[in-house]
Amino acid sequence: MAKVYTQTAKSRRRRGLKEASAISYAARIGVQAMDTRALIFEVEQGFSYAAFETLRRQLGLSPAELADLVQIPRRTLTRRKQAGRFTADESERILRFSKVLQAAVELFEGDAQAATRWLRSPNRALSGETPLAMTRTEIGAREVEELIGRLEYGIPS
Predict the structure, then answer these.
(1) Which residues, 6+ apart, have CB-to-CB distance to 58 below 8 Å?
(2) 62 Cβ partners below 8 Å, 6+ apart?
(3) What is the pLDDT of residue 5?
(4) Is the residue at 121 inside a domain?
(5) Which end of the chain, C or N, has fewer beta carbons within 10 A?
(6) Domain of residue 64, residue span
(7) Residue 135: pLDDT above 70?
(8) Element (H, E) at 134
């Protein structure tokens, strides 16, 4: 395994280097990853149940509602809660929702409540579906992210 060299914040400042920051959409649910490789590692290890709960609270959903969106059967969710950890596939789906939420919060200039309302509202540009419902699949999530990008640049959808 490769050695990882770390620097203190003070030594980075002395050299004029920027502070390293975690990937924002992962940090939103309590997953600390400084780069893509670290995030992949975290996904492969499986997220803790706390990541699911954090996302659920931020979206204002019940555990059953989020489990349905993330496509985790309720009995499986109960087992994951007892075990305290999700599988890699489940973690990746949780991360997908966190990424879309982060993009929506940025679209609404940090207003998480406005972003959540938008995510939960039917959208004509998505054929009347809610952005959250579209995010159930990777293809749908990309469509939501593209819509957010168009809205950020003022392109009518």
Answers:
(1) 28, 29, 101, 112, 116
(2) 56
(3) 35
(4) yes
(5) N
(6) 21-152
(7) yes
(8) helix 131-134
